[in-house]
Amino acid sequence: MTHTKSSDIKVVDYDSPVEYITRDGRLYNANTDYLLPVDEGESLRLSRFPVAHNYLFGAPFAERLEKGIVVLDSACGAGAHWSKAMGEKYPSSVFTGVDISNVFPSESFSNIEFKMGNIPKSIPFPDETFDFSFQKLLGLPFTSEEWDSNSKELHRILKPGGYIELSEIYGVSAHNIGPLMSQVMHAL
C-alpha cells in the first residue's frame, strides 16, 4: 500500500480562492460546512478506500471501463485516490475528479484530470457528459436539500444508459437526507 506524503499532493491554483483553517492541528476548508479535514492525514485515510471498496463493492462496469468511457469521481477528496487507482487500472477511460477542496495529486496523468467544484450546489459540467459517476462518503456533510440537489445533478450530467454508484454508510446519513435520497437509500 502506498502512503501519501505532503509532497505527493498539491494545492491547485484556481480563480476563486480557497481558504483553510486549522482546528486541533488539522487543516479544514473554511468555505464550507464540510466536516472532514483536507490534510495529509485525511489523504492517507482515503488512500485505503479504493482497495477495500473495489474488493467489496463496485459497479458492474468493468467491460465498459476497459473499452473506454468518461467517468466522474464526484467529491473525489484529498489525494483523489479512487480516480488514481481507476485511471491506472483502466487507461482507455477518462476520469475527472471534482472536489470542493483544491488539494489534488501533484503528478499528471494522461487520462485523469481534476477540477474544483461545490458538488452539492452544482456539478460543473454540461448535461449528459459522463457514462459513469462515482460518489462516496458524503452522508455527514450534506443537508437534505443538498442530497436532493446532488441527486438531480448526478442524473443531469449522466449520459443515457449511464450508471451512478453511491457508496455511503447506511444509517449515518439517514437523519440528514431528503425524499429523493431517502428513496435511493430505501432501495439499497
From TrEMBL:
CDD domains: AdoMet_MTases. Residues 71-162 form the Methyltransferase domain. SUPFAM superfamilies: S-adenosyl-L-methionine-dependent methyltransferases. This is Methyltransferase domain-containing protein.
